[in-house]
Design a protein that fits this description.
heterodimer, A: about 500 residues, alpha/beta, Rossmann fold, 6-stranded mixed β-sheet, 22 strands, globular, B: about 350 residues, binds adenosine-5'-triphosphate, binds magnesium ion
Chain lengths: ~500, ~350
Amino acid sequence: MSALEFRGVSKCFGSFFANRDLSFSVEPGTIHGLIGENGAGKSTAMKALFGIYPIDGGTILIQGKPVRNKSPVQAMRLGIGMVHQHFMLAGPETVLDNIILGHEPGFLRLDRERALEELKKISETYGLHFQKWHARVDELSVGEQQRVEILKLLYQRSAILILDEPTAVLTPQEVTELFENLKRLKAEGKTIILISHKLKEVLTHTDSVTVLRRGECVGTRVTAETNEDELAQMMVGRPVSFTYEGERKVFAKADESRAVLRVERLTIEGVSEPLRKVGFDLRPAEILGVAGVQGNGQTTLLRFLSNPSRYRSADGEYRFAGANRMGSNPLALRRAGMALVPEDRLSEGLLLEQDLVENYLLGQHEDPRFVRNGMIDRSKLRPRVEAAIRDFDIRPPYTNIWASRLSGGNQQKLVIARALDSNPNTLLIAHPTRGVDVGAIERIHEAIMKERNAGKSILLFSSELDELMDLSDRILVFYNGAVAAEFSRREFDPWAIGRVMGGGAK
Amino acid sequence: MKSTWYASFRSFLRAVAGAALGLSLGLLICKLVGESPLKVLHVLYQSSFGSGYDFGMTLFYTAPLILTGLAVAIPLKGGLFNIGAEGQLTVGALAAAWAGVIGASIQSPVIAVVFATSSAFLAGGLWGLLPGFLKARQGSHEVITTIMLNFIAAGVTAYFTLYSIKDPVSAQAETIPLPEAFHLKPFAAFNGAPMGGLIFFLILLAVGIHYALWKSSWGYSLKALGENETAAETYGISRGRSWMSSMFLAGGVAGLVGLVEVLGNSHRFKIGFSADYGFVGIAVALVARGNILGVLPSAFLFGILQKGSASLDLETDKITRDLSYLIQGLIILGVSAEDLWGWIWQLVRRKK
Ligand SMILES: Nc1ncnc2c1ncn2[C@@H]1O[C@H](COP(=O)(O)OP(=O)(O)OP(=O)(O)O)[C@@H](O)[C@H]1O
Ligand SMILES: [Mg+2]
């Protein structure tokens, strides 16, 4: 008997079918992949299973029994647990409280001690190393928050685990660990549904795969009997290339003194990811990659570079576009030609309950192209948003919907389009293709390379080593708050870079 | 696809439906205590629209609530909860009265009114700016500081009223009366109710603020900040500037209650003149769901209820003032229970 079966399930938003007549089943004790382009309806289908959305047609069966989950609480009682694409932890509370929220041991009384004991045991059994039980959740890195989410499911003893793009935010090491853990969970008879845009991952770690396209089920394959090309073709409806193969213009050797952005002896203490004597140059017409295991200072560096005014205690030098930028604010940097794609699109990049035009305005709200005498002319803005929707194939293609209505990958496309809109000469880009489907990755990589070939400077932060090696001219590897090594394009080698990321020598 | 205006329109319809639901519940209670609901409705209608005078009085109750409703709704856009409209309006009203004392020799009504208006605005504005500044600078919670400033305002204005510009002739705790040039003329059609062209000015003010918030880059920054503080900061929106400016504007607007009361009605500052306008303003803004233009109908609704509660007390046997407050409360509840509507809607859908 299947652990889970979708029988003709549909879910609409208004007149729009996010899921149409989905049918597939998942065998118990397997890992089942769920893939599809951005906006294909993966998250929606899983949210319906998890009781967040009521379904508008069809039946969901668990252990062969039809169920109607009216709420996540009910779903959890049926042994279904979900880690959302965008985490749903309660900000200022501690990790411990977040995990035991709603599942407190003891009657009417929080027995934190007991819960902690149990959690430590769980984290050991599954090899999910974690120590900061008493830290506030909003002080954790994205990767750590992810681990907390998974621990929470384990603590709830879910039998069916839904993971919505769990690896999008993890480091390669963490990804390996995660899959080891999933294998262990699988051996214990748990059923796992894995949503991912990384086909390699899906091919290595799942037992079967279901592909969605535009809300419909294209088919289900046994993983061992399919391959990357077939899956991509099913997802997109056309063949896709997986590495950037476009033109990389060769420029005369960049003059080192012509750096547009220069950091020297940058030291920031007293933050969760300190920086120690960081120095580098960013030159015209280059993509400078920043690699490193999450938590080694990259986050602080990006936040500092885009908003130095936030770090009063920073020490060292930061020059950009010919001026000292210590203590500058983002608007000043922007006027000097800088644009930003922040690490976390939801918390740092979007106004979820505003429409796309308002979101497009963020950061451009004093741009003279749209603003005269302090007054915004939205009629000039709207065509830009429409162009962005066309260029990046943002779906659904409407300017007047809330940003929260876009699927994760489409939100990311919007944030990138916005950064490119002002024709900046320098771009700080973090995780540009996080949660983006294979077709769109191509498009985004092309867009970044086009900027470089036009002579722009790009500082690229990514946890995907492949992406960094495909695009970068040079790569800086961060370890323990400092630049541990620099690799030029000739020297790129995943093993060598990985070694330095882990603290080894070049 | 749902557009923004459609969403606001739906939200407005929901508010109206909510008011109707609350009113029906209230009428049901009237029925239970033995009063005819029809009579109650009739009294409410008569007391607010029955004559020129009644309508004028309704507007007179509405006017300060427009101002205090705005004073709460404006900072709310940026995520601040201004509980201090009461203090801001007190300080503003005193400043208006004081302007009359200082400018006693001003002959031109235009200059006099402009002078008093700017004094009231400035005084209220500074009183609002202070918690905005403390929030931006020290992170002091605005709810606490504005509440404290309400008490301080009451004390300070009482002091000045009694010791600096007290009317030597009067036995009451009130300031020297304003010279003629400072008086705002009421409409003759209102038969003595103290309300005139000022009401149009207030409507224009609300429309202007709405427009500024929507069109200006200042308003955008404030909205972005209220929506997502981290994102706003990441993209260079200064918390301090937005918070301080919005609180200054809010305080200034609250201070204009001085125009309604001091210039328009009693022509002097009286200690304790405010019928808790500042606090009712919170309810006005919440019923309007923080929407600037929504403050206008919302304040009018409260004006009607406030005017009506006195009449209900007098003209019916069973309905006391307290009971009419209860009805008021039910209406507010009906309007603000947004979740309730979502819930009812879901039930209906499930049934289908
Ligand atoms: N609450 C909502 N209201 C209206 N439309 C929605 C809502 N949530 C999602 N949608 C739409 O439904 C479609 C499917 O969205 P969903 O989030 O399931 O995509 P996804 O497959 O998870 O994509 P991604 O890989 O980008 O996360 C999208 O077109 C999206 O815009
Ligand atoms: Mg999704």
